[in-house]
Amino acid sequence: MAAAIAAAHGSASRAVLFYGSCLRDVALEGAMLDFYLIVSDYRAAYEHGWLATANRLIPPNVFPFAHEGLAAKYAVLSEADFHRLNGPETRSVSVWARFAQPSRLVWSAGPEASEKVVAAVARAAPTLLSAALSVVPNEQQPLDLWSAAFALTYSAELRAEKGSRSASVVDADPARYLRFFGPAMAAARASGKRCGGSWRRRRIEGKLLSVARLAKASATFAGGAEYIVWKINRHAGTSIALSEWQKKHPLLTAVTLVPKLIRTGAIK
Q: Do 65 and 1 touch, CB atoms closer than 8 A?
């Protein structure tokens, strides 16, 4: 599937990463696999210039994908944006929070592309810990600190997951987080660069950015409104159903659903 995703964007494709809950699960039936496609340049990755512009202004673009009976979605970032968004120079948690968690490099265009994507991912865990240490008790045990750090990142995006989600991420592979803790802390201190910005500002910007991405996804993601509702129902235990009008007007649906979902607690 990773090779098929890369082929869809031709010579611009540099690497494909597999991540998310399906990486931890054995049963994939009924699930949607999560990938990131890293490209050399947005303009080279698309036939239509407006998609390149959208990807550059509000990264990433997200697309649905199906291959050999499995369903997936994939996000597209350039090598430059992937490197930047995994590091302390951005307040947005979206990328470094995800890649501080396990991921797999499942396709690359060659050794140079692999080295670049690995170097970018290596920035994520130090960035996460550096940002968290400014607000959480530093003397916590390593696994508790990881959980507290992820809890902060979940608060900075619109999320449908339950409150225990940050702990369950760590509990899924505690040995991995213990193994990563020392090197990640050392790298965070060695960089001498704190992940800037207050968490209050990060939360406000992150939630506004989440709404902007939802609106954009309604134009780039076929069936985007149905997918969003499916994901919320799956993670929050709700039973939201869309009307035919809402399915036909995904942009309006994406924007108008958000206040209702926040009020009911389906997303936070």
A: yes
